[in-house]
Structures are given as C-alpha cells and as structure tokens.
User: Fold this.
Amino acid sequence: MTRWLRSGLAVCAALLMSMASTPATAEPIAPAWMEEPQEAETAPRVVAIGDVHGDHEAFRAIVEAAGLVNADGAWIGGDATLLQVGDVANRGPNSMPIIHDLMRLRDEAAAADGRVIVLIGNHEAMNVLGDIRYVHENDFAAFRTEESDRVLRRYYRHNQARIERAYRRQQPALSEDQIRRLWLRETPLGAAELIMAWGPEGEIGQWLAGNPAVAKIGDTLFVHAGISTDYAGLSVADINARVAEAIAERDDSNTSILNDPDGPLWYRGYFLRDERGEIALIPPEDAEPEIATVLAAHDVSRIVVGHTPSLGGIRMLLDGRLIGIDTGISDYYGGPRTYLEIVGDTVTAHVVGEGESP
Assistant:
C-alpha cells in the first residue's frame, strides 16, 4: 500500500468515525469482566496464544493442536482456559472468522467450565478509534453490501466541508472535484460499516466490551504489550477500567492509554529501546529491574506478553519470569505457529507440528 494511500485512509478513517460515534447521552456498555473476579486464583490448564493478525487457518491449527477444539472447531477443552493476548485483527485477510470463533468458543467453553479470555491489543484499539490503515481488503469485503457505495456517497455529501478541510491540510491546491474523487477512490467500500461494527453498539464493539487489557491467572500476569514502570503501581482492575473507559469514549488523544507508547497496548521496553532515533534490541538483563518491579507489584512469578514479534519462537527470558509469545504466527509475518501451556508450575512452549520448543 502506498504512503499516500495510507495517508488517505487515515483521513477517511477519522472522518468516518463520526458515523459511529456514541451519543453524549448514551450509557457505556459495562464490560463483562467487571461482573466477574478480575483475577483468577488458579486454572487447571492455560493455553496462551500470541498475535494471530487475521490468519484464521493458523488460529484453528493452534487451538486444535492444543486440544481445545475438534476438527470442526467446537470446544473440547473441558475446564481449560484459552487466553489470546490481543491483535486478533488486521494485517491478515480473515480477522472476522477468528473473532466469530472466539465469540462462539467463549460460550462453549463456559458450558464446560472452561474460559476464553481475549485481551485487547493495540490493533483492536486502532479499529475502535477508526484507524483502518492495517485492515485487510477481505475484512472490508466482509461488511460490503449493495448499499455500501450509497452509504459512502451520502456520507460525503453530509460531511463535504470537513473532508475538504482535511485534504487541503495536506494539499491546499486541490479542487472540490479532485477531493471528492480522491476520497471516494481511497475509501474502501465497507469501511463505514466496519467502523460502525467496531463501535460501542456494533457486533464487535459489544464483544470487545467483554475483553480486559490485563489478566492475572494464578501467579502469571498476561498483557498484550507490557506493563511499564509508569503503570506498575496500578492494579489489574485499575488498568482494565482505564482502557474500558477510553474505548467507550473513543479517546484518541495523545494522552489516551490507548495511544500511550508506555501503556499496556504499545509498550516494547522489555525488548527494545530507542537510541537516537534508532530502535535497538536490549539484552534481557537490562529489563530485569523493571520486570522485578512489575512482578512484585502484582505478586506474580512471571509476565506473558505479545506485541513484539520474535520469529525464532517463544522467548523465555530471565529464568522464565518474562515470556514473549508473539512469534509472528500469521502468514503476514511467516513465523512459527506456537502456543504456551501452563499446568500448575510447569510452563511449556509448543510449536505446532514440532512438539515442544527447545
């Protein structure tokens, strides 16, 4: 995708968000996790899966290999817990089938005394905020109807002045007709419907309202990106409440927890640092003081994160206190299909088709 097209999509997304804005008088949807204990003392078996980014085939292969579903995709995991660390959506072509699987499996697992927990990742937050730059064409197509062209054209007519201002901030010399043609060409059919589906009253938005940003199961803390020292003093409930509020309000400000580079959806400080504008890997021991602070604050033995991919497989660092499970699972990245299994005190990294990782 060209840089100009990505820029155009960003403009389109910001404008389309108003179609799905929550009225000021609307009551926010209460997240399901607020009605349940936000920290589980234990679970017989936990299977944690990293970022799958729209690769439905990979997702199905992993949960089947882990013994959680049968060949038809139905739950057979009994009282196990499936935990996915976020970034189900974007980049790959089949985000919606994975989301629909997770919606269905949540109910099927609950009926068998199991659990399905899906954390909120930065790409889920991006879709909520209307940033559709990384949405695959297939996902737009999933929302397309015979009315989609009319929806976009009607929206343009109703918001022409704002659209023109947005485009002229980048190219002041554009004419009214040039802007109209550019906007209609650059905005995919189905984009308006997709953004509304991710809104508070949409199908995905309702599902997302039931998802936390952080989960604590036994002596393991799970989060999409990481808990920086800026957030280490907050409880699991506090962090979840802040993320839920920001999503309900679609807070896209620079200070929003949904955009904070040191926040739980974006933090990469356990693995990377910025050295004079260049990103560099850090040795694990450099992260040890911060990891020690976070583990002590939450009274856990380890933290499991996604977000920062490692195509070499699951990373067990600092004697297993820091575990990175984003292995570039999706075909977009081409990494191995992996999952982490926790049974009691035993933590095992698996590669689908290869058994345990070294």
Summary: The first strand starts at residue 39 and ends at 40. The domain at 32-120+211-356 is CATH 3.60.21.10 (Purple Acid Phosphatase; chain A, domain 2). The two ends are 37 Å apart (CA to CA). Confidence is low (pLDDT under 50) at residues 1-7, 19-37.
